[in-house]
Amino acid sequence: MNPILRDLDKLYFCSFEKGEIRAGDVVVIDTGLEKKVIHRVVSVNERGIITRGDNNYADDSWTLRSEQIAGKVMYALRGKRKWIVRGGWGGQIQSAPTIFKRKLLWRVHGILRPIYQGLVTSEKLGFISLPVKAIALQRPEGVELLLMLSGHIVGKKKTGEPWRIKPPMRLFLKESDLSEIVDRMNSLQSPRMK
Amino acid sequence: MMHECSLPTINPQVVCREEFDGWAILFDPDSGKAFGINPVAVRIWKNLDGKTKKEDILQELKSSFSEVPENIESDFVDFVRDLVEKGFAGYEV
Amino acid sequence: MPAVMSTPRSMELEITGKCNLRCRYCSHFDSPGDVGIDLPAEEWLKFFEELNRCAVIRVCFSGGEPFCREDLRELIEGAVRNRMRYRILTNGTLISEEIAEFLASTKRCESIQVSIDGSSEEINDSFRGRGTFKKAMRGIEFLKSYGLPVTVRVTIHKKNLEDLENIAKLLLDDLQLPSFSTNSASYMGLCRTNPEEIQLTAKEQTRAMETLLILDKKYKDRIMAMAGPLAEAKIWSEMEESRCMNLPSKNYGGHLTGCGCVRRELAVRSDGIIVPCTILSHIELGRINRDDLRTIWRHHPALRSLRDRTNISLQDYEFCKGCAYIEYCTGSCPAMAYNLIGQVNHPSPDSCLRRFLEEGGRLPEIPS
Question: What does the pLDDT read at residue C363?
Fold first, then answer.
């Protein structure tokens, strides 16, 4: 529920005995487990109550009955600061920026990820040749390769494992160049690099 | 390109903590292993960049330190081999 | 005296002042380190770059409770990126399987010290709070299952004095931990509110020393102590033996040589203020990302003065007048001295053998 609520905030909540549960309320959910969950009510219908954390991409898997809701969060205390946690319409407005940011990030991520993967696979940017070099280090479990770019480590490869390259460096490296490094290392397993 | 006579380059993750009287500790954070090296070895370590030639390093040692032993070349080779075996230095591929 | 290192070898970082528990003897809360401000991750990450340039090889994440920080992962990744290994001091109650998996994946974790004070819920939770035993034990299980180097710190106090054997059995036999360490609740932080309910009397300390020496023999080299009854049992017995045999003083005894930390390491409070040690948090040396660490380490007058304590003779103190152990004594921890009598440059009354004996304490026989 960040940024409205964070870990270790002290929460004041009251039971729903007198009021009704509305979309937008921040509620304390009794999951039956040791840990209670604090999420926002998304909707209330005849089947039950649907909740979701403000930063989550999906509704919670459960549909709750009202007796599973221990109470509604009214106030929060962080350090010496105390503030009202809005419910109902107020809560929906209070959480709107967080939910908007989450949706935007999800969209951007959804668009960029396939583009990144596509660029990696197609090697379209491979023409930008980076002056990378690799250093082979002797380790007890085999040879480890460090991929270096102007003194910085941009990737690693352990024996029997795939390359782990920091994004976005992978965009500028050709698969053939990477396998060539491995081939060179294998062919140069001279007595000193066994 | 690697040649039999080429020198290794230092593992960039290894920390060289220079301490008292020019001595230093080489520390590999990945393995947690450390070992102490003398001032001559510190100078060698600083020159292991994969480019500087062995002859040039030896020449520098002879001009920088008094009382460089005669068998410095074999000590040099042993030290460098030790670094490679410990994973503190490696060869460029 | 060992020379001062060129830069600190390790740093203890109080990355948060927050904690989900309020242990009765907590040294953090209500101490000068309890500043109520946590720095954002960016500040720490920038500081780690300076630590890298200074060739610092280890950071110890403490607090507060380090796992209260939601961005702890980011901080650990920053330490790893800057060529350091790390340790964590934790109450263990917030450790999930996911966290353990992450810590293991970094391959740079040197140790995770979890606090456990009793072999049962009843004893452990008496000062640490309800439910803490179960949660900390679960945390330890997660850490163990990922092969992480777990260790336990047992703080000895009135309520667990008679449980030490069971604790050793639980930790070393049942959990098969390689070792655990002990200390005793000290007159710091929250403990100062009601020390008589928490701290050991001289008689109880004698009992703790006896028990720990027996356990130390049984579990050879698996119980550690830098301070507290086990450390004192060994140090004081040696002092008594030296006195009886009239041996010459060694390690520059008879001077305030009790603390070597300031020659090797420094600490940072949760608000970014650099201090000599987390328990000397009132001595402010500078601020991270504003003041140069190397300059502080080499030239700060307060650090120099702490290092120069070793030149102060115990003969200069009224407190030590006429003490038969003076030549063999080091004055012990400056932070303890400060907490008890408000002076850093003073022998710590808490570690005074003469005082211990005067109060009815007895040196136990070291089991052969």
Answer: 94
Q: Are residues A105 and A170 in the same domain?
A: no
**Beta carbons within 8 Å of A33's beta carbon, 6+ residues apart:** none
Are A113 and A169 part of one and the same domain?
Answer: no
Instruction: Name the more confident of C136 and A177.
Output: C136
The interface pTM score, or ipTM, of the predicted complex is 0.90
CA C134 to chain centre: 24
Same domain, yes or no: A84 and A163: no
Chain C hits for A79, CB-CB cut-off 8 Å, are 36
Asked whether residue B2 is domain-assigned, the answer is no
Asked if residue A73 is part of any domain, the answer here is yes
Q: Which domain CATH number covers B57? A: 3.90.930.60
* Nearest-by-Cβ selection for B93 from A138, A184, A192: A184
Using a CB-CB cut-off of 8 Å, the residues of chain C touching B27 are 57
A146-154 contacts, C-beta under 8 A, 24 or more apart: A146/B11, A146/B12, A146/B13, A146/B90, A147/A181, A148/B12, A151/B12, A153/B12, A153/B13
Instruction: Give the residue-averaged pLDDT of C270-289.
Output: 96
Which token pair is C272? Answer: 């970014």
Query: Can you point out the beta strands (E) in C185-341?
Result: 223-225, 265-268, 273-275, 286-287
Segment A87-133, tens digit of pLDDT: 889 998 988 998 888 889 888 988 888 888 888 877 777 667 778 88
Contact partners for chain A, using 3 or more CB pairs closer than 8 A, are B, C
How far B20 CA sits from the closest chain C CA (Å)? 7
| Record: contact C70-A8, CB cut-off 8 A | no
Distance from CA of C272 to the nearest CA of A (A): 18
Give me C321's structure tokens: 């007048």
- Mark A101-139 as b/e (b = at least 16 C-beta within 10 Å): ebeeeeeeeeeeeeeeeebbeeeeebeeebebebbbbbe
- Among candidate residues A66, A99, A122, the one where a domain is terminated: A122
Q: Tens of pLDDT along A44-102?
A: 988 889 999 988 878 888 888 888 888 999 998 876 788 899 988 999 898 899 888 88
Are residues A145 and A118 located together in one domain of the fold? no
CB atoms within 10 A of CB C131: 13
Q: Is C129 left (phi over 0), alpha (psi -120 to 50) or beta?
A: left
Chain centroid, CA B39 distance in Å: 10
CB contact under 8 A, C70 and A6: yes
A154 in a domain, yes or no? Answer: yes
Nearest Cβ partner of B93 from A138, A188, A192?
A188
Whether residue B49 lies within 8 A of chain A, CB to CB, comes out as no
By CA distance, what is C3's nearest residue in B? B20
Which domain does B14 fall in, by range?
7-92
Q: Which segment of C149-153, C247-251, C327-331 scores lowest on mean pLDDT?
A: C247-251
Total number of domains constituting chain B: 1
- Indicate which CATH number applies to the domain containing A107: 2.10.109
Residues A111 and A148 in one domain: no
Q: Enumerate the β-bridge partners of residue B10.
A: B89
The edge-to-edge listing of strands for the beta sheet with C223-225 is C223-225, C180-184, C150-156, C109-115, C85-90, C58-62, C10-14, C265-268, C273-275, C286-287
